[in-house]
Every structure is written in C-alpha cells, then in structure tokens.
Design goal:
This protein is α/β, with parallel strands linked by helices. It is built from 9 helices and 9 strands. Bound molecules: pantoate.
Length: 283
C-alpha cells in the first residue's frame, strides 16, 4: 500500500490513474479504524479500480470544548488493517498542509447543518463539509463511500455535491453493529465496561421504536416517548436529542407517513454517541 502525505503527490497519483482510465474510490476516515470502517473499504473495493483511504483528524469539525486532541489515533494499527483490506493508497496529510495559516474558506450547507447534531455541535458540519470538499478536490475520486451511522453527515455531503456540482458519486453504507447491538464508533473506545452496557440502551430503544411501528403506531410523540423511556432506564446515559424527521430534509414529522429517520445522540461518560434507524410503515 502506497502512503502519501502531501497534497501535490496525491494529485499527481490521481491524475495518472485517471489518465490510465482507472476508477478511483475514496473512503475518508479520521482513523482509529474499526470493523465499520473496514466494511466501507470492502464496499469501496467493489466499486472501482483503485481504493484510496484517507486518515485525517479534521480540526475544523471539533468545537473548542470537544475531543480533538484526545481523539484516539493509532496509525500503525490502521495501516496494517488497511493493507489487509487491499487498500491501494493511504492519504494522510498534516493539519498544517490541509489548513494553511491563511485558510479562510469554509463550506456551509444551510439548514441541514443546524438541526440534530448540528444544534448541539455548532460549526461541526461546516468543518465536515469543508474537509470533504477539500478531499474531493485533492483525491478527485469517481466514487466516495460514507457510513450511514452519520446519516446527517451523508445528507449534508449529498446536498453539497449537488449544490456545488461536484463530479463524484456518493455511496451510503449501512450501520455496522457489534454483536451486542452497539453501533461501531471510534468513540466507543472511551467507554468503560459498565458504560458500554448502559450504551446498549440506544440500540435497544431503536428496536423498540421499530416494534411500535410494526404494531401500527405512527405518532412521533408516542415513538419518541418510548425511545426516551427505554434509554431512561440507564441513568448513566444522558440524552442529547431523540428526533423523528423526514429522511431527506431532516425536518421534524408529527406522524410517519412514508419513510422517517429516527435519530438520537447521547452522552455516556466521556463519549458522545449517535445512532439512528429508518422507520417505515408496512410489512
Ligand atoms: O465521518 C468521519 O469520519 C468524518 O466526519 C469525515 C467524513 C472523515 C470528515 O472528517
């Protein structure tokens, strides 16, 4: 696996691959890889001729009181995992090269960025959209793969690609869960054994919501109350939000007519965890 750290080298490599008619797939990550990331790599492998993974802990998407410096990093382990998955190239630029001292340009995807996680993490999605736009410009992939645990992120990036006419196809990959149901996340590393058990109430609450919908419940208020009650059984879990929104525009819905996104965020110890499911009436 080739490893590149400089933007100019990355551009040169991509240009040569494109000229040779090869289809480039990018999986952007912040590293500290887990099975969820690796399933994105496997998906990416099927979608083109060259698979690029990026590892960049993006300072622009962390708030002043968030875990940028404490964010888990383990480059050697990540490198081995990517190699095993047959990744062709790892791009790992430095923060200094990605954000030069004079950097003043940001991508702001309005409305979608200020709801759900955006309400409690102001500026977060501006940082995400900016770095993803930069990575698209540097790596110039034909296809990019993102996990749907960050459903809001995927919607925002999709909007950005459409609004800025970016020439890249986006693929959203389903949430990968541990055997106990916990959605995989690099931040699960912050959880103690006891906190991890408490965190299972998140996925349990989503199952509860799906059961209610399959029994004919359509009212958001009832579904949200049931989710909150399930999570509330674990005093260590502090809910940030539980919302039922339309899956495209992320606006709150009062009833489920078609497809709705049930999204939640909660703090467990030091970790802020998110999870979601699509609720659909019908069999
Ligand atoms: O989902 C992530 O890991 C990050 O938000 C991303 C897309 C790599 C941008 O930094």
């Amino acid at each position: 696996m080739k490893i590149l750290e400089h933007i100019s080298d990355m551009r040169r490599w991509s240009e040569a691959e494109r000229c040779a008619g090869r289809r480039i797939v990018l999986v952007p990550t912040m590293g500290f890889l887990h099975e969820g990331h690796l399933s994105l790599m496997r998906e990416g492998k099927k979608l083109g001729d060259r698979l690029v993974a990026s590892i960049f802990v993006n300072p622009a998407q962390f708030g002043p009181n968030e875990d940028y410096s404490a964010y888990p990093r383990h480059l050697e382990r990540d490198r081995g995992l990517l190699e095993k998955e047959g990744v062709d190239l790892l791009f790992r630029p430095s923060a200094e090269e990605m954000y030069s001292a004079g950097h003043r340009t940001y991508v702001d995807v309005e409305e979608l960025s200020s709801v759900l996680c955006g309400a409690s993490r102001p500026g977060h999605f501006r940082g995400v959209a900016t770095v993803v736009a930069k990575l698209f410009n540097i790596v110039r992939p034909h296809v990019a793969v993102f996990g749907l645990k960050d459903y809001q992120q995927f919607r925002i990036i999709s909007r950005m690609v459409e609004d800025l006419n970016l020439d890249v196809e986006l693929i959203g990959h389903p949430i990968v869960r541990d055997e106990d149901g916990l959605a995989m996340s690099s931040r699960n590393a912050y959880l103690s054994e006891e906190e991890r058990k408490a965190a299972l109430s998140l996925s349990r609450s989503l199952i509860k919501a799906r059961e209610l919908v399959s029994q004919g419940e359509r009212r958001s208020s009832v579904i949200i109350a049931a989710v909150r009650a399930e999570i509330g059984k674990e005093p260590q879990v502090r809910i940030d939000y539980v919302q039922l929104v339309d899956a495209a525009g992320l606006r709150p819905v009062e009833r489920i007519h078609d497809e709705a996104l049930l999204a939640l965020a909660a703090r467990v110890g030091k970790a802020r965890l998110i999870d979601n499911t699509i609720l659909k009436p019908g069999p």
